[in-house]
Automatic annotation (TrEMBL):
This is FDXA1 protein. GO terms for biological process: rRNA base methylation. The lineage of its organism: Eukaryota, Metazoa, Chordata, Craniata, Vertebrata. It comes from Chauna torquata (Southern screamer). One of its GO terms (cellular component) is cytoplasm. Pfam families: BMT5-like. Residues 6-127 form the 25S rRNA (uridine-N(3))-methyltransferase BMT5-like domain. GO terms for molecular function: rRNA (uridine-N3-)-methyltransferase activity.
Length: 517
């Protein structure tokens, strides 16, 4: 009866199809399926978990050959068979069908899982218990929905050209940052969450301050002295004397490209000097926009009382963790006020920032969000996240802006997302004080939208940005559930006289693993 109805409606019904060789049953023109369903697969009789894993592995490979790029594969399994946390109770891994790992072998990720409700499917009957015409228990059964994963990409070395000191120069981008340069997340037409947060902050602050946005492009490279002991966190780039253009070239303004070499560790510079290699100029990928803020204050066009705003990506080596990022979008606010009024200016600035973030969070979730301004002197170094720790090394911080979200893991539930500083006296006259505020837009976006891993903000998978319409923030819905994870140990010895640099080691691990670690 069901087959008759399907045929009557124009469907093509086929029997005795081998699920492990699907392409053999369909002409090339008919191999583009949007959805493939396999309800309660089983090898038959008393086949164990190993044989059923093999069946699923062959099925997923076969499905990959006839599924559209954005198609779905639905697999219904009895309670416990899948081996995921969605199964209640959950079987031990070795005693399950390990469906997520098996599907991954064919390039699929588990994107959704929900209860299988046979009663909602008209005329459906579950039979086949031990290859007999008997029903089997489907109480607690789950429907697993798989989509294609994006392939692991390996990026070629990249040369970036910029204008610096009135000359066109080029430098090699550190390999770990190749896929993160010039992504354009802060462009006007961007629907990325960091741009939405930036626009909201600008709109609210413009109601309280005369606001001037710095639109000109800030150089990716910074030349000069960096305060503090943060050298191991910097992506260093050096220019050796033999690569320096001649006086005639500089006078003629020719745009000969100069190749900079990337230096992984700061000590390499010291070693080059010890070997007699003279380093004429030392550059780094900008770790902060604060030096540019100080330059704005010194410019002739700077107007006291106006709030200057500029933003862009900054680059820092850091330890590997879900909330520590080697590149993020920083937003900096600069304002000069009369001495004695800086605290009221700070309070007003922070209040507007808090109102903006609260407003964005309420549109996303009704859960509790607490934002506080805390004095830096009340924090121990061990209490600071990577962002705050680096900021403290860069220059003295008066206040930290912290966000606390109830739903986060307790270890990351309270995060520093911003800093407040006042300028040293040499930048201003005796009657004026400069207030600098810095925000980590990426971290704010993660906390508001409950994005569990900073890598999602930079993914090339279009399923991420499709969740965020232009100008809107939403709770992030993970499209890769329960990914298998593997723990390995590595042991090595450090030669006598050499100090182990943990940040450098993590940077190497991040690069060679294409950020899968």
């Amino acid at each position: 009866e069901s087959c008759f109805l399907l045929t009557f409606e124009g469907a093509e019904v086929m029997f005795s199809v081998d699920c492990t060789k699907l392409k053999d049953y369909f002409l090339p023109a008919k191999r583009e399926f949007d959805c493939i369903y396999f309800n309660f697969p089983h090898c038959g009789r008393k086949a164990g978990v190993v044989k059923n894993r093999e069946l699923l592995a062959h099925f997923f490979h076969s499905s990959a050959e006839v599924l559209t790029e954005e198609g779905e594969v639905h697999v219904a399994l009895c309670n416990g068979q899948g081996g995921t946390p969605a199964d209640q109770p959950r079987r031990e891994w070795h005693n399950s069908w390990q469906i997520v790992a098996v599907a991954a072998g064919a390039g699929f990720i588990l994107s959704n899982v929900h209860p299988f409700k046979a009663e909602t499917i008209h005329g459906y009957k579950c039979t086949g218990y031990r290859s007999q015409d008997k029903s089997f228990c489907i109480e607690g059964a789950l429907n697993h929905i798989f989509t294609r994963s994006t392939p692991l990409l390996y990026f070629k070395p990249m040369i970036c050209e910029i204008e610096l000191e009135s000359r066109r120069i080029s430098f090699q981008v550190p390999q770990v940052l190749v896929d993160k340069i010039n992504r354009g997340f802060l462009e006007l037409n961007s629907n990325h969450p960091v741009q939405t947060i930036k626009e909201k902050l600008m709109a609210v602050l413009s109601q309280a301050f005369p606001l001037q946005s710095i639109d000109y492009c800030l150089s990716l490279l910074f030349q000069g002295h960096l305060n503090g002991n943060c050298h191991s966190n910097i992506f260093w780039i050096i220019l050796s004397p033999e690569e320096t253009p001649s006086t005639e070239e500089m006078a003629s303004g020719r745009t000969n490209a100069i190749l900079f070499s990337h230096v992984d560790f700061y000590r390499d510079i010291d070693e080059n000097v010890q070997k007699g290699c003279q380093i004429s100029k030392q550059y780094c990928l900008r770790p902060s926009l604060l030096p540019y803020a100080q330059a704005v204050v010194k410019s002739a066009a700077f107007v006291p009382g106006t709030l200057y705003v500029f933003s862009g990506p900054v680059f820092r080596k850091c330890l590997i963790s879900p909330y520590s990022m080697p590149v993020f979008h920083e937003m900096v606010f600069v304002c000069t006020v009369n001495r004695g009024t800086e605290n009221s200016c700070i309070r007003m600035l922070v209040d507007k920032i808090k109102n903006s973030i609260h407003s964005l969070h309420q549109t996303v979730s009704g859960l509790k969000l607490n934002i506080s301004l805390q004095e830096a002197m009340n924090f121990e170094t061990s209490e600071l996240n990577d962002f705050a720790a680096f900021e403290s090394q860069l220059s003295k911080v008066q206040y930290f802006l912290c966000m606390e979200v109830d739903t986060l893991d307790s270890s990351e539930k309270c995060s520093c997302v911003g800093t407040i500083r006042t300028a040293p006296f040499e930048l201003t006259s005796s009657d004026l004080v400069v207030v600098f505020a810095s925000l980590n837009l990426d971290l704010i976006a993660m906390l508001i939208c409950r994005i569990y891993d900073w890598r999602m903000l930079w993914t090339l998978d279009t399923r991420f940005l499709r969740q965020f319409p232009r100008g809107e923030l939403r709770l992030f819905k993970n499209f890769s559930l329960y990914p298998p994870s593997y723990v390995h140990d590595v042991s090595f010895w450090v030669p006598d006289g050499q100090q182990f640099d943990e940040v450098a080691f993590h940077t190497v691990a991040r690069q060679v693993s294409s950020e899968t670690v």
